[in-house]
Specification:
The chain is of the alpha+beta class. It is built from six helices and five strands. Bound molecules: zinc ion (3 copies). Residues 113, 115-116, 118, 152-153, 155-156 line the site of one zinc ion.
Length: 167
């Protein structure tokens, strides 16, 4: 079983955040886009965890520096980050996830842990090809294909294993 797609419990998370922010800065620069304070803050909040956050959660954690919270600003920042591939919307959670494989062209399936909410992004080229084939066969004009699967991550699965093999 390959667990490497899910983050190890003990890993250098500072390095994750650092890599994510560095990539975001480069991505904005190469598009001549400004990495504004709002965009930066929203991405930082998302990079702080390996699970998707809803807009309400982001609102609560956002440092507004005394200003009144404006959800539209969060949405605009998310929209931008999503448009350049730094953030993914996880439909089944109605929430947003910082991309864990930024910069790499990826056909992704999101594996969502129902217990700890951790999400792994996994390459799923064959499944995406199958959907594209299906679209061809049915004359369906495909616009987007976001694949999500729900279940338990390796950590949560072993913690709830009935035979208590973890002990
Ligand atoms: Zn991390
Ligand atoms: Zn991604
Ligand atoms: Zn889990």
């Amino acid at each position: 079983m390959d667990q490497s797609f899910f983050p190890e419990r003990q890993h250098d998370h500072e390095a994750c955040i650092h890599a994510g922010m560095a990539h975001a800065e480069a991505a904005c620069e190469s598009r001549n886009e400004r990495f504004t304070a709002n965009r930066r803050s929203v991405l930082e909040l998302l990079l702080a965890v390996h699970r998707p956050l809803g807009v309400y959660e982001l609102m609560k954690q956002f440092d507004w520096k005394g200003r009144r919270p404006a959800p539209a600003q969060i949405y605009r920042a998310l929209e931008f980050l999503e448009s350049i591939g730094l953030v993914h919307r996880i439909e089944s959670c109605n929430a947003y996830l910082a991309c864990s494989r930024p910069g790499r062209h990826h056909c992704t399936i999101f594996l969502v842990c129902e217990q700890c909410k951790t999400v792994a992004e996994v390459e799923a080229k064959r499944m995406q090809d199958a959907i594209a084939d299906l679209a061809d066969q049915t004359g369906f004009e495909l616009h987007s294909q976001v694949l999500e699967a729900r279940g338990l991550c390796p950590d949560c699965a072993s913690a709830t294993a009935p035979d208590g093999s973890d002990h």
